Amino acid sequence: MLRRDDGFAGRGDDAFALLIRAHDGLSEAESAALNARLVLILAHEVGDLAVLDAAVALARHSLNPEPSPGKPSPSEPSPGETP
Amino acid sequence: MTPSPRYAFAAPPELRGPGPRRPVAVIGSGPVGLTCALDLATRGIPVVVLDDDDTVASGSRAICWAKRTLEIWDRLGVAEAMVAQGVTWNVGRVFHRDRELYRFDLLPESGHRRPAFINLPQYTVERILIERAADFPDLIDLRWRSEVTGLTPVGDGVRLAVATPEGAYDLDVDWVIAADGARSPTRTRMGLALHGQRFEERFLIADVRMRAAFPTERLFWFEPTFHAGQSALLHRQPDDVFRIDFQLGPDADPDREREPERVMARVRAVVGADTPVTLEWCSVYSFRCARLDRFVHGRVVFVGDAAHVVSPFGARGGNGGVQDADNLCWKLALVLKREANAALIGTYDEERGHGADENILQSSRTTAFMTPKSPAERLLRDGVLALAGEAPFARALLNAGRLSRPCSLAGLSLQTPDDGGGPQDGPVPGTACPDAPVSDAAGRPGWLLDRLGGTGFTLLVFAGAAPPVLPDLPGLGIVVVAATPLAVAGAESLADPDGVAARRYGAMPGTTYLIRPDAHVAARFAAPDGAAIAAALARATGRAGAPFREAA
Ligand SMILES: Cc1cc2nc3c(=O)[nH]c(=O)nc-3n(C[C@H](O)[C@H](O)[C@H](O)COP(=O)(O)OP(=O)(O)OC[C@H]3O[C@@H](n4cnc5c(N)ncnc54)[C@H](O)[C@@H]3O)c2cc1C
């Protein structure tokens, strides 16, 4: 569902630098607000709800402390992995 | 550590009275100054090297030397010794806490003479370069304990004041190469300053000797369990020595962090309590990413750390400096032989200024990734770390060092852009030539890079079954590559039985590359057309009225 190729076409470092720069001079609250807005804008750019669903699942999964390193716990979905 | 060699001071003739004007003086016998001296000598240019000390680098400085550097040193006849004494590596691993996120291979294909990297301490590198300099007794005049104390432009040359244990003298030269390091007194003397960014973060580097099973790979940890909240980097060096870099944060007290008991406690946390280990050297440092605005000032040309400094992550300091030497010396040799105009030196500034910007950008980004400055930056960084185990895209964002690669000079003045008729794949003009296994007419195996560049420009022509019709261009070395060697008058014939060279150069019969003395592609064509090659050659030597930035 989520793409496994290089969506940044070799320019990942530029993309990351752009995201970091977006927060220049902002307070923590402003940064959080910016992040929320970015999520909304980018979600709309993605459009496809199934992709969004997989992205949310991957993000949530990555929040959990890992019970066994490297392996997702069986009760969790395994997003990002092509079956 | 083996004791450092001491090199004897020998009184130069100038101490007895004014001597002749010399073509080139190099200030500083670090890896970059010595590479310049050897490069100029291989081109027949006599050079005086002045160094204020009488030995090699002390302590731990550079250890990682990149493939491109080894290829340059192959041309100078020293890479074999470096590789033999160093340890070879291609693979890196990245960990987060106790979990391996991924591994990368910097050289996943075979058919290259040199590995992605070797690790070899800088003092050994310098010793090998100094030994090699002795092979050019008529061309390289290496003067120890000779401190440059003054520099005055005189007409179209420079007068250097030199202080020695036996007195002072003046040395008149056409050109000065300032290779006097990050604190460059030449820079200060000329009122020039580096511009850039200073990082507050402090790092501890410890070289320890131990018998340990760590693989010969680059190991990088974010927030390792043994060094909470920070990062750490481990490299194997020759003779059971390992280098460990610990990130300490901006508030660390350098004096306290250097205390051996404290250092050893950190080391023990990595290697365990039972491994016998001795501390060879340690230091605490912070660093800058900065450069001179211009590298060429009249007849003084800055190279290496004197021209630009970077953070060590990515091994871009010494490797970048060796690329400076490689870029400058053929140009300087052409100018001194009156085969090119002095304006050609302006393209050193253009090309290596571009290289320095790239090195600074890459090493600053790595440092920024390791040291998030705001909570927002840390959240994004930690997000990348958390996702990198599962999501390949996050591994592309994760920045544990972008290791030194050959700089591309594409789009700069000396290169002739593709006209679309030439190869569709392979190195575009400006790219450093890729290597490939080949054999000579007698069937002896060798490497393509050994046949390209070096003493002059090379025409690399790929052929099918029939010998190509070659243009008559005096002074141009010609190499013809075919599946089976062809007898071609005036050219060296190489066989490429498995087609590796043809594949790497995107070649069809007729495909022709014009290659600079530093083994970067100057131009490429569908066929060896004399007029087009002559025009590209004129451009690549600065004779075509191509727009240069002023060298002055
Ligand atoms: C901890 C650390 C790790 C590093 N790791 C790497 C790595 O893995 N890979 C890499 O590529 N780079 C690395 N570097 C960077 C590398 O060490 C430098 O880029 C390299 O030394 C630059 O070489 P240089 O010849 O320009 O200058 P230097 O090596 O500094 O040499 C300058 C020379 O000039 C001489 N000199 C100074 N003033 C005068 C004077 N007035 N008269 C005469 N002589 C003078 C000095 O004595 C010295 O010999 C590292 C640096 C550090 C500090």
From TrEMBL, chain A:
Compositionally biased tracts (Pro residues): 66-83
Stretches for region Disordered: 62-83
Protein name (Swiss-Prot/TrEMBL): DUF2783 domain-containing protein
UniProtKB/TrEMBL annotation, chain B:
Entry keyword Flavoprotein: yes
Pfam family, one: FAD_binding_3
SUPFAM superfamilies: FAD/NAD(P)-binding domain
Cofactors, names only: FAD
Protein name: FAD-dependent oxidoreductase
UniProt-annotated stretches for the region Disordered: 411-431
GO molecular function ontology, one term from the record: FAD binding
Record has Flavoprotein as a keyword: yes
Keywords assigned: FAD, Flavoprotein
Start and end residues of each FAD-binding domain: 23-356
